[in-house]
Amino acid sequence: MMNDVPTFVKWAGGKKQLLEQYKFFFPRNINRYFEPFVGGGSVAFYIIKYYRPKEVYLSDINDELINTYLVIKNNVDELISSLKEYEKKHSKKFYYKIRAENPKNLTPLQRATRFIYLNKTCFNGLYRVNSKGDFNVPIGNYKKPKILDEKTLREASKLLKHADIKTQSFEKIEPYVRKGDFVYFDPPYYPINRSSFTTYTKESFLEREQKKLAELFKKLDKKGVMVMLSNSDSYFIRELYKDYHIYTVKANRMINSNPNGRGKINEIVVTNYLPSH
User: Which end of the chain is more exposed for a tag (fewer CB within 10 A), N or C?
Assistant: First the structure.
């Protein structure tokens, strides 16, 4: 059941592997759904597919990612044709040529094609930018990477048809969220050690940002909103959310340059309601 959720990018901290555990935490009914750190979208696609909310609001601060969502939603046929071309041309030389392009000089379709192409062919599927916001991951060592997954893109496009999708930071949802809505927060995880990878955009997400998010969690709780959050299992995060329900889940750490750093680790899920399952 979880494998039929379309994921069109590999994303550090992607939630597809956790859906089997997460489904017990989701509310029984979801009418309006907000996800302001949408990332790879596994949870959003699962919620849309199986809960059919009347309204869906997806956002992220990563403009390249959000542009890709919009192109998948509105121009999936053109995107598929474009990715077919990139698949034919794929080589080390082509990879570095595409990586060197400045997205500001490209059309939305070209930007989305570039984003998916680099994601499918770069080292470890790791999305990382430098302090200038430039994508800087080297090419991956793949014999024949699957650059175009037509079935997944078409299914994603169908599920996104009625979603409101925009580039914005997480706190911008506050005025729009009402009592009874469901909000899922999946921020960049608080690092257990400072060398952990948390940078998907050139802005970092550390103590100050985590505290700001916890304040928003509390405000939404007071409004009567159902809120769920995932994060690393650390004392700092547990303290921030000690007034709420905290659960432990087991995750596979898939993206780590050191193979010894991969394996099952504890993560936490926080809710301000008791799961109904």
Answer: C
**3-state secondary structure string across 151-165:** HHHHHHHHHHCCEEE
**Strand ranges (E), 175-262:** 182-185, 226-232, 245-253
Residue that has been written with the tokens 């997480």 in this structure:
170
Of 157, 219, 156, 158, give the one whose Cα is nearest residue 185: 219
Token pair of 256 as six digits:
């780590």
For 143, the enclosing helix (H) or strand (E) is none
Q: Is the pLDDT of residue 204 over 90?
A: no
CA-nearest of 217, 187, 169 to 66 is 169
Give me the pLDDT at residue 253, please: 64
pTM of the predicted model over 0.85: yes
**CA pair distance 253, 14, nearest whole angstrom:** 10
The tokens for 185 are: 């927060």
The torsion of the CA quartet 210, 215, 216, 221, rounded to 10 degrees, works out to 130
pLDDT digits (tens, 9 = 90+) for 141-162: 888 899 999 999 999 999 999 9
Q: How far apart are CA 52 and CA 41, in angstroms?
A: 15
